[in-house]
């Protein structure tokens, strides 16, 4: 093996030299690796070890650790043989064992499966030899295949977590991505109903669905939280107008952030709740069907979404298919901002510790900031209009 940029490590016994390995391409040309390799002789045999670092100071420290290993009787380093596909399966087993939500596990499955697909395409199936350069090549591959910036960011973060875990479990000698950093992308603009559109939807929807839409619009609940809402969670006698306790809707019988929150009941919502019969424990249930003639089964998110899109089309909204059930949560956030509700209250009601979407609305509807901007006036005359051509 030929090494370029050779450097003898003073004080190492046996004497260790570090350098950058020289490779030969298929066309006969050569190129030098940007990572360091250690070379030494021990008991009449030559030994080499890839140090898997680009930094010379880190390579020197690893050279001394090799000496310590040799003194302990460990001439050869432990061999690691972990494929990316194997790492994926082990990491997914861990997440399933932790009881992660099904949708979260599906997200992990899809993200790591795309890494396996990339590794198969480029012939880099080994997790042991995976490098930071491979990490960015994978990012480029995702972009070339149409993945959005947000999708790429989520999958790259997932991969960093998987490699960090594999290293901690001693499945890898080192974490090749320990020095890799990512910048979180700016949140993309999401569709949001206007107050007039919400009014139109609630007026045109049938009473069964209007009550569901109104609950999301007036409380900012996720559809899962609406589906799992019980009559016992609505405390009509608490506070001035009542309180809604949100305690379910995510995985494991809890909310998405595993917390319980109390939201004041908006008096404008009560007439919609009064239209709902209190026949079942759940507030909202699916309509009777051949399978459930008495009713009482949980509402279907898919069917409700299709119904909302049809309603948006019937109401004449532009691009009706862009709207989702989650859009009611966005309009609730925007109404909090429009009404100058304290930011901490909005966060509490939405069940967030922070929210970039909420930040956008509070910036958009910050009347105080707009009024403050108008106070900046310089003692100058406004520019005059340029003379018209030909005069």
TrEMBL record:
Domain of life of the source: Bacteria
SUPFAM superfamilies given in the database record: DNA breaking-rejoining enzymes
Domain Tyr recombinase: 188-378
PROSITE patterns given in the database record: CB, TYR_RECOMBINASE
Claim: DNA-binding is one of the keywords in the record: yes
Coiled coil location: none
Keyword DNA-binding: yes
Domain Core-binding (CB) residues, every copy: 82-167
Keywords: DNA integration, DNA recombination, DNA-binding
Annotated InterPro entries: CB (IPR044068), DNA_brk_join_enz (IPR011010), Integrase-like_cat_sf (IPR013762), Integrase_catalytic (IPR002104), Integrase_recombinase_N (IPR010998), Integrase_SAM-like_N (IPR004107), Tyrosine_recombinase_XerCD (IPR050090)
Protein family membership: Belongs to the 'phage' integrase family.
Full protein name: Tyrosine-type recombinase/integrase
């Amino acid at each position: 093996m030929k090494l370029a940029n050779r450097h003898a490590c003073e004080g190492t016994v046996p004497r260790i030299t570090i350098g950058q390995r020289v490779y030969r391409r298929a066309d006969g040309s050569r190129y030098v690796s940007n990572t360091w390799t250690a070379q030494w002789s021990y008991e009449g045999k030559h030994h080499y070890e890839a140090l898997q670092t680009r930094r010379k100071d880190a390579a020197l420290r690893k050279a001394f650790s090799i000496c310590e290993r040799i003194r302990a009787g460990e001439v050869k380093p432990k061999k690691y043989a972990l494929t990316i596909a194997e790492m994926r399966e082990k990491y997914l087993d861990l997440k399933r064992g932790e009881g992660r939500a099904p949708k979260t596990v599906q997200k992990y499955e899809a993200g790591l499966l795309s890494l396996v697909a990339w590794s198969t395409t480029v012939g880099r199936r080994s997790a042991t030899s995976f490098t930071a350069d491979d990490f960015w090549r994978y990012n480029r591959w995702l972009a070339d295949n149409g993945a959005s910036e947000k999708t790429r960011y989520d999958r790259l973060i997932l991969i960093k977590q998987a490699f960090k875990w594999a290293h901690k479990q001693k499945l890898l000698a080192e974490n090749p991505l320990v020095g890799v950093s990512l910048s979180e992308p700016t949140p993309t603009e999401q569709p949001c109903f206007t107050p007039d559109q919400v009014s139109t939807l609630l007026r045109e929807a049938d009473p069964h669905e209007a009550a569901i839409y109104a609950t999301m619009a007036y409380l900012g609940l996720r559809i899962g939280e609406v589906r799992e809402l019980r009559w016992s969670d609505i405390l009509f006698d608490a506070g001035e107008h009542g309180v809604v306790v949100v305690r379910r809707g995510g995985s494991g019988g809890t909310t998405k952030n595993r917390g319980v929150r109390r939201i004041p009941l908006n008096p404008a919502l009560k007439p919609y709740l009064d239209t709902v019969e209190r026949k079942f424990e759940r507030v909202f249930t699916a309509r009777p069907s051949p399978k459930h003639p008495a009713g009482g089964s949980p509402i279907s998110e898919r069917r409700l979404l299709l119904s909302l899109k049809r309603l948006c089309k019937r109401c004449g909204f532009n691009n009706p298919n862009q709207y989702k059930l989650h859009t009611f949560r966005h309009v609730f956030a925007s109404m909090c901002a429009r009404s100058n509700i304290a930011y901490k209250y909005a966060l509490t009601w939405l069940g967030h510790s922070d929210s970039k979407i909420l930040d956008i609305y509070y910036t958009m509807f910050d009347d105080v900031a707009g009024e403050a901007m108008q106070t900046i006036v310089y003692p100058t005359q406004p520019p005059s209009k340029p003379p018209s051509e030909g005069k």
